[in-house]
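User: My collaborator sent over this chain with a note saying "see what the structure looks like." That's all I know about it. Can you take a look?
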Amino acid sequence: MKILLKRAYESPSRSDGARVLVDRLWPRGVSKENARLKAWLKELAPSNELRQWFHERPRQWPIFRKRYLQELANEQAIASLELLHELGEQYSALTLVFASRDVQYNNAVVLKELLEGVRKPPASSGPLKSVVSNNAKRAVRPRP
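Assistant: Without extra context I'll predict from the sequence alone. Here is the result:
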């Protein structure tokens, strides 16, 4: 599965495949028609509290990543992750669309890493949940 990242303010292209907005809030100034989305998965966005916390502490990327992966372990997020994985299997590419100005440190980057770690479609009962948990544990490990 080819996974791409793209800001919501960039023009869609054919190579994007299935475009999925992974933010809780709709990007300002972007029409739904121009966004050309297959889905808007709000459940995959970080909580407002976590988003605001990270906005105030942009250098705390490892902590944000860890907390975000923990948030993705809830049932609604897991169901949305499974849908995201299915879309990735149906299209030649999957583009995670986000509004953040920071293209290197945002929730879409974490989702891309998570999806790239999942090699087969998850069963509804738990393989994806274990991947989320394992990735959250890895995020805590100190870097050498």
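A starting point for your reply to your collaborator: The chain has a mean pLDDT of 85.
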